[in-house]
Amino acid sequence: MFGVWAPDDEVAKLTYFGLYALQHRGQEAAGIATSDGRSLLVFKDVGLVAQVFDESSLASLRGHLAIGHCRYSTTGRSSWENAQPTLGGTSGGTVALAHNGNLINSAELREVLAERHGGSLRASTGEVGRGNTTDTALVTGLLTSDEDQTLEAAAMEVLPMLRGAFSLVFCDEQTVYAARDPQGVRPLVLGRLERGWVVASETAALDIVGASFVREVEPGELLAIDEQGLRSRRFAEPDRKGCVFEYVYLARPDTTLNGRSVHESRVEMGRQLAAEHPVEADMVMPTPESGTPAAIGYAEASGIPYGAGLVKNAYVGRTFIAPSQTIRQLGIRLKLNPLRDVIRGKRLVVIDDSIVRGNTQRALVRMLREAGAAEVHVRISSPPVRWPCFYGIDFATRAELVANGLNTDDIRASIGADSLGYISESGMVTATEQRQDQLCTACFSGRYPIGTPEDHRATDVLELEFPVRRGSDPTDVGTLDVQRMQETDSEGEPPAGVRDVEGVRVGSALGASDALTRP
Ligand code: SF4
Q1: What global pTM score does this model have?
Q2: CA distance 367 to 376
C-alpha cells in the first residue's frame, strides 16, 4: 500500500513507483485513487502494477493526493470487483480505501453494517451494495454509513470495532489517512517529501520515491494528512504483535521493520541455523532470492563456502504467492534452473526461508540430484509452519501444510533430502531483535495473539481435526501433539482421516478436537 499528499508532485506516478517497489506484497490486482480536491477517481484492474497502468492511465489520474494498493487475496475472490482501493461515499464526499491484513470479525461487521441499512447489505452505498465480498469493502461501507459524520469522526468510531490485522490507507477528496491495528501486525511507515508526505507498507518504497523515513505509523494510531499538515490521533492502546514472517520472508530485505534491518535479521537467522543444525558439506547455496541472506549467514558461521547453484528467472512471481496449486507446481520449473557444473559431485547445504506445502522443496531436491549433487541437506530459516494465518497471509488450510502431523524426519523423507533442519522459534525470534511478547508467531506456535475468526467455515480450517495438548490457560491453543499414525486398521485399510504425502503417512486423529474449537 502506498499513499501520498504532495500538491507539487505527480502523485499518480509517485504511487505507481511506490507500488512497483511493493509488488512482492501482492500480485493479483493493482489500483490507484487520486483526488484534485473536487473529485476522486479510481483506476484498478487485475494483474501486476506494470500490466494495469500505462502512461495514459496514469496521466488521467490527476490531483494533489493519491493512494494505491497491490492486492494479495486472503478473503474474497481474486477478481476485478475485489481489487482495491474500494470505493464508497456519502452525499458529502467519496472515500477510497486500501487494506493490508485480514480482519477476523467480518461476520460481526457485516451485521453491524446491515443493521445500519435496515437489515440489508444491498442497501449499502458503494461496493458492498454491489456485491464486493472483502473485509476491506465492509470497512469502507462502515466509514460511509453515516451521512452526517466526517470521515475522520467515522474512522475514530469504526477503527476500534475492527479485530485482526489492518494497515489502512484511505482518502476522501481532501485528506489522506493512514491507520494501523493496535497490534501493528502488518507494517506501515510515514515518510517526508520535500513538499509533502508519503505513507507506505515498507521503508523500501520510501527510498524508491526519494522520501525520507520519518517514523512508523504507531499501532493504534490514525494519521490524517491535508493542507493543514499532519494530525495524529490514537484510537486504541498499542499492544504490539508484529508478524515474525515479515522478517523471515514477506518484507523486502532492504526494508527496516521496527528499527531492525530485514536483511540483517535473515543473515542472523542463517548464523543461528548453522549453530543449531551443523553438517559436513562442500557448498552452502540459497534457494534464490528469499534464501540468500540466510545462506550468507550459514556460510559465514559454518565456514563452508557459499555458492550460487541455481539461476532464477527474475521475472516470474514468487511461487508461494501464486494462487493455484497448478501454477505453484509449474512455478519451480519456470523460475529456477540449476548450474550443473557448480553442483555436480558436491555435498550441498540448501537454505530456504520456509516450507509451506513442501512442493517447491520436493521439486528442488529432485532437480539438484538430477544435476549431479552428491548430497542435499536442507536447512530452513523458520520453524515448521503448522498453523494457518488469519492475519493476512494465505498459507493454506491446515490439511495442506506439509508439517501438519509430520515430524521433521517425515518431512525430510517427503521432500527427499539427506537431512533437514529447521531453526528453533527462539533462534528465529532472537535474530529479529524484537521482544518475543511483541511478535506474532502463530503459524509456527499456534499462539494466536488476536484470536481467530468467529466464522471458521470461511477459511476451511476445520477440514481435518488434529490432536491438541491443551494448557490450563483457555487462551492457550496448546501445542500439536504429533503422533505417528497407525499404519492400517483391523481390516488392513488406512484408518479414516489418514492420507499419504509423497510416501509418508500422515494422519488426522481420531476423535480429538481442533485447536480452533477452543473458547
Ligand atoms: S500467523 Fe504467521 S504469518 Fe500470520 S501474522 Fe502471525 S507470524 Fe505472521
Answers
A1: 0.85
A2: 11
Distance from Cα 393 to the centre of ligand 1, integer Å: 7
Give the atom of ligand 1 at the shortest distance from the alpha carbon of 243: 8
Is residue 475 domain-resident?
A: no
Name the residue with the closest Cα to ligand 1, atom 5.
Answer: 243
For residue 494, being part of any structural domain is answered with no
What's the maximum distance between 2 C-alpha atoms anywhere in the chain? 77
Say if 356 falls within a structural domain. yes
Q: What is the pLDDT at residue 410?
A: 95
pLDDT, one tens digit per residue, over 257-308 is 999 999 999 999 999 999 999 999 999 999 998 899 999 999 999 999 999 9
pLDDT score, position 482: 25
- Nearest to residue 1, comparing CAs of 218, 214, 200, 208? 200
Cis ω for the linkage preceding 160 (within 30 of 0): no
Closest C-alpha among 233, 226, 217 to residue 160: 233
In terms of domains, do 276 and 132 share one? Answer: no
Check: CB of residue 394 under 8 Å from CB of residue 367: no
CA of 388 to the centre of ligand 1 (A): 8
**Are residue 340 and residue 385 in the same domain, yes or no?**
yes
The answer on 157 and 123 residing in a single domain is: yes
- Best substitution site from 181, 183, 185, 245 to test ligand 1's pocket, by max atoms within 8 Å of Cβ? 245
Q: How far is the CA of 471 from the centre of ligand 1 (A)?
A: 21
What does the pLDDT look like over 4-55, one tens digit per residue? Answer: 999 989 999 999 999 999 999 998 899 999 999 999 999 999 889 999 999 9
Does residue 367 line the site of ligand 1, with CB under 6 A?
A: no
Question: Residue 320: which domain range?
Answer: 261-445
Same domain, 166 and 269: no
Boundary of a domain, candidates 420, 445, 470: 445
Residues 188 and 265 reside in one and the same domain: no
